[in-house]
Amino acid sequence: MSFDDLLKGYQSFRSGDFEAHKALFQKLVTEGQSPDVMMVSCCDSRVDPNMITQADPGSMFVVRNVANLVPPYKADGESHGTSAALEFAVCHLEVKHIIVMGHAHCGGIKALMSGDINKDTGGDFILPWMKAISEARKRVDRKFGQDSEERRVRELELEGVRVSLDNLMTFDWVRDRVNTGDLSIHGWFFDIEAGEVLALDQKTDQFASLSTEVN
Ligand SMILES: [Zn+2]
């Protein structure tokens, strides 16, 4: 898709989807947004949270970052984009669910696993950002060191979701709401080829097909 195609897409949005959803957009302006769900997803262009969930405007608060990571709580006065998005979603919008969605063939995770990100190629920002899963990488190396790189990358993609869920609980205002039942956290994993979402069962710590049964 070229840049020109994007412009055509915008034209088609104006005359198509925007027209069709005009009333919704107006309502979201007059009443404001009150999404129930926040998603932490990867920047990867092949993973589109709204397409996967068919979420309409106003229904899902999304933050995307390299490798869909939630860093641990660190209030040091520096810039923390993902933590700021979490604070806004939880403390102000009062979302009821946070989903961390990993995905297959994650370039960030693959580069970390293969050592392609180093001081020269990603030392300013990517390497420090990926620190959140450097311990996870060591765990995967210990457990799956004899396996193929493909397997190790997949295990780290899954482990990254587990680590991010653990890190969510280092934010007091997340942990308190989870403990009172006002907030649920979920780990998902999107398999690009199959178009399938796997969900982490927090009791067994394993990923399995996401149940679409409505409670
Ligand atoms: Zn990714």
Descriptive notes:
The chain is α/β, with parallel strands linked by helices. The protein has two domains: 1-32, no CATH class; 33-209, Beta-carbonic Anhydrase, Chain A (3-Layer(aba) Sandwich), CATH 3.40.1050.10. The chain contains eleven helices and six strands. It has a six-stranded mixed beta sheet, covered by helices on one side. A hairpin with a 4-residue loop joins strand 5 (196-201) and strand 6. Helix 6 (107-114) packs across helix 10 (149-168) and helix 9 (134-144) crosses helix 10 (149-168). The structure holds zinc ion. Zinc ion (ZN) binds next to helix 6.
Task: Give the strand order of the largest sheet, numbering strands 1, 2, ... along the chain.
Answer: 2-1-3-4-5-6
CATH first level of the largest domain: which class? Alpha Beta
Bound molecules: zinc ion
Q: What is the count of structural domains?
A: 2
